[in-house]
Amino acid sequence: MSVSPQLSLTLDDRFSRELSEMAIPWRAEEAPDARLLILNDRLAAELGLDPPALRGPEGLRLLTGNLVPNGATPVAQAYAGHQFGGFSPRLGDGRALLLGEITDPSTRVRDLHLKGSGRTPFARGGDGLAAVGPMLREYLISEAMHALGLPTTRSLAVVATGRSVRRETQLPGAVLARVASSHLRVGSFQYAQATGDVGLLRRLADHAIARHCPEAADAVEPYLALFQSVLAAQASLVAQWMLIGFVHGVMNTDNMTISGETIDYGPCAFMEAFDPAAVYSSIDEGGRYAYANQPVVAEWNLARLAEALLPLLHDDQEQAVRIATDELGMFRQRYGDTWSAGMKAKLGLSGHQSDELILPLVDDLLALLTTGGVDYTAFFRSLSGAAGGETDDVRTLFATDEGLDAWVQRWKSLGPDAAAMDRTNPAYIPRNHLVEEALTAATAGDLEPFDQLLTAVTLPFEERPGLERYTAGAPGDFGAYRTFCGT
Ligand code: AMP
Ligand code: MG
Question: Is residue 255 domain-resident?
Fold first, then answer.
């Protein structure tokens, strides 16, 4: 435990104490000219931190890892991972550090973590750095996801370091300060299991139980209960991604949390035209992480977690495999339950209507949206108007009728609740062309477009005058959107 008097920040080092084999004590690179680009005042206050102090020189040194509170032990965390299906036994934080754990005033424990803080022993060929654009991107999209009600890591601040970073061109460098329930990943368990040290694996599982599902400690089979909890959290998370139209882009097992929070906003994007095959990442040539594949990939990743946990599930390997397989079989139902309930809510039908009526209606709708290449977010937002008879907004999204009117009649006969729909279907999401516009300006030193977009997407359900351009789809000349991993 440690205290920085200026910031009255206490950071625990529980991960590094309990799992020292997976934690390399390390220090951030010096930021030659730190400048705050954005601070999340509300999150800072929630954590019991003082925003004015964080804005001051000491605060900036803390947010770049250059001031380490007495007694804190920043570490690079070890993890393994399947990347696009291929296993790497040693990935780890190549350019990130866990500063430590904060207990907020409501006693919730969260990691304070830096990204872009310099090379670590896990950096391999990487420079350990991050550019302003991608760090602001993670800030913007993670905060939008939080405002949309999805479980996610949060962003506390982005600080420009004053160092330039070499990508295709020279770019200004930055450090993101991130807050998470924890940074335990499926890949953390794969790492522990691959060491062959079952004691380490058990300690990691005990640590995860204490942080994420303490009730599992009292279960007859605590490690099975841990797996059940991760499976439920991930099934629900990925269903929520699907409902909101989010494509993560790089669902490697090192980018899948044990907490069920979305993590590592790299080549992610929000879908505009509804398309099950939507892929944005330039490196995802086979479409492994396409929109419609996400639930299947999540299930695959959970199978990798189950494999890593086998030694804890039963002494007899065959029995352990049987237990894990039975449990994995629950994924589809859990995913389906969250997805169906969410889709009903999107259609304003959360009440008494039966699944037999609603599910074919949903299938027909998704077929209509696919054929018409209709903007997914705009469709659901404008559909609430159609409940009251104002069908113009929704109709303009379709080039031709294509069966829309007949579908709307069927849907209306079920008595949708328009007001409830507007609390579920956002008006504002981080649209790709707006994100790019904001990041290009920010990289050139103008933060105004970023701040405006952030204002729109962090109150996503409240339509406000003057923000019309944030609801519109990309202009025709924006072209097919491509995101890059070279973050
Ligand atoms: P990601 O795809 O961002 O989740 O990162 C995958 C792995 O690459 C992790 O081990 C990262 O720490 C590492 N990595 C990504 N970018 C860099 C970089 N610029 N320098 C060092 N390591 C990096
Ligand atoms: Mg990652």
Answer: no
pLDDT score of 260: 98
Say which ligand is closest to the CA of 89: 1
Ligand 2 center to 407 CA (angstroms):
42
Taking the centre of ligand 1 as the mean of its atom positions, its distance from the CA of residue 188, in whole angstroms, is 15
The rounded distance, in Å, linking the Cα atoms of 380 and 358 is 16
**Known active-site residue 254:** yes
Specify if 256 maps to a domain. no
Angle at the Cα of 193 from the Cα atoms of 189 and 197, rounded to 5 degrees: 125
3-state DSSP percent of the chain in helix, strand and coil, to 5: 45, 15, 40
What is the structure's pLDDT at 351? Answer: 72
Which atom of ligand 1 is nearest the CA belonging to 485?
A: 2
Domain-located, residue 303: no
Most ligand 1 atoms within 8 A of CB, residue of 90, 95, 138 to mutate:
95
pLDDT, one tens digit per residue, over 182-227 is 999 999 999 999 999 999 999 999 999 999 999 999 999 999 999 9
CA distance 1 to 370: 54
Q: Report how far ligand 1's centroid is from the alpha carbon of 283 (Å).
A: 14
Residue nearest to atom 22 of ligand 1 (CA): 94
Mean pLDDT of 101-127: 97
Q: Of these residues, 93, 254, 264, 375, which one is catalytic?
A: 254
Last-in-domain residue among 156, 180, 204:
180
Q: How far apart are CA 279 and CA 267, in angstroms?
A: 10
What is the residue with the minimal CA distance to atom 7 of ligand 1? 91
Q: Residue 156 carries which DSSP code?
A: E
Question: Which amino acids bring their CB within 6 angstroms of ligand 1?
Answer: 91-96, 122-123, 126-129, 250, 255, 264, 266
Question: What does the alpha-carbon distance between residue 150 and residue 281 come to, in Å, rounded to a whole number?
Answer: 22
Helix (H) or strand (E) holding 443: helix 432-443
Give the chain's domain count. Answer: 2
Query: Which ligand lies nearest to the CA atom of residue 191 in the structure?
Result: 1
Q: Which of 315, 305, 230, 241 is nearest to 278 (CA)?
A: 241
Domain that holds residue 129: 2-180
Residue 60 has pLDDT above 60, yes or no: yes
Q: Give distance in angstroms: CA of 95 to centre of ligand 1.
A: 6
Q: Are 406 and 365 in contact (CB under 8 A)?
A: no
Q: Is residue 68 part of a domain?
A: yes
Q: How confident is the model at residue 438 (pLDDT cuts 50, 70, 90)?
A: very high
Last residue of a domain, one of 180, 202, 235: 180
Give bridge partners of residue 76 from the DSSP assignment. 24
Contact of 320 with 313, CB cutoff 8 Å: yes
Verdict on whether the full-model pTM lies above 0.90: yes
The residues, ordered by sequence, that sit 6+ positions from 330 with a Cβ below 8 Å of its Cβ are: 228, 231
